[in-house]
Input
Amino acid sequence: MADKKPLSPTSIARAERQRVAAEEGAQAIAEIEREAAAVRKNMERLRALREAKEAEALRDRMTNGAAAASKSAKRKKQVSK
Output
């Protein structure tokens, strides 16, 4: 077998930098994914609140709209008498 060359200090340092960079990159990606998941969860919560608020407003308009329509119909009957 061929004799292996001993590793030079520069190649050892380069390998160590690459290892550290790979670890830091993996940690950064994991952090970004956690933040993205938190943002999506918050968006879902806010969307649910907005949809509930819109549904309540629609119910109020339907209820108040029916009451307003009946009041205006009563006024028309009173005016036409």
Residues 10-72 form one domain. The CA atoms of residues 34 and 72 lie 56 Å apart. Helices lie at 9-80.
